[in-house]
Amino acid sequence: MRRGWLITRRGPPRGYAAGMKAIAFRRYGGPEVLEPMELPEPKVGPDWVLIRAKAASVNPVDWKVREGGLDALIPAHFPVVPGWDVAGVVERVGPAVTGLRPGEEVVAYNRQDHLQWGTYAELVAAPLRTVAPAPSAATWEQAGALPLAGLTAYQALVERLEVRAGETVLVHAASGGVGRMAVQIARVLGAEVIGTAGGRNHERLRELGATPVTYGDGLVDRVRALRPDGVDAVLDLAGGRALEDSPEVVRDRFRITSVVDPGVLDMGGQYLFVRPDREHLTRLAEWVDEGHLQIDVGATLPLAEAAEAQRVQEAGEVQGKVVLTI
């Protein structure tokens, strides 16, 4: 195998201590509430997989969860281990799991129905529906950065917007983690892409196949200069003024999808909250291996520095994904 070793056991190794190191928080708050903990090994249900983590991506939702921003939607059981992205090696599988065995390299978008057992940990228990084979062409850090960003872009473009070859898609915040995935996936689908971003990110967007435009005042005029009849679809990853301008540049308001502002529904568009999907994640990994998708990692930090990693991600101090190595 590319990165590691293959084992065949379905139970824990001899001498294994039922515990793990993790980063967790006991209450909502700022980065200071994150602390290293020794926690019990998470339980593995009949159709679950236990993953020995190698890398976990840091996403904006992680610090929003830490601050209590999802408390009205998802119940929390403290202490909470944050994180929804992970790449690693299957440690063992539940008795009902088929198609995966210990030793295989996998990625997962491990969003569950409650907050407790996340991915900032040595061991991650994930439902089989969230797990897919890892791309063999990616490093652990790149693989760990794929699930949430890739699935968000894929589901928005394929399921919500139904982008087709020959169309033009406007992606707001195209230089972010989801945005870069969206640019590339839209290109795989055969679409042309206009991406909003600050000037320092324009060259990277060109490399990925998009036509960059600067966001802010005058955006409508800049987009209309490129597509006088309007674009076919808009993927909003920014909200605010960018979303407000979107109806003026798209032909059909229903083909505006936002992943940050449910207010898009009031203007006739669609809202997306990404969901785990094993088939979609498998397809994304295949596109990485086929050379269609590049995963930009901007910074890597050890698990013990998770608080700093979240701070860096929130501040937007790096270009590309922030990843924890475990």
From TrEMBL:
Keywords: Cytoplasm, NADP, RNA-binding. It comes from the Bacteria. Its main location: cytoplasm. GO terms for cellular component: cytoplasm. GO terms for molecular function: oxidoreductase activity; RNA binding; zinc ion binding. CDD domains: MDR_like_2 (cd05289). Homotetramer. This is NADPH:quinone reductase-like Zn-dependent oxidoreductase. The lineage of its organism: Bacteria, Bacillati, Actinomycetota, Actinomycetes, Pseudonocardiales.
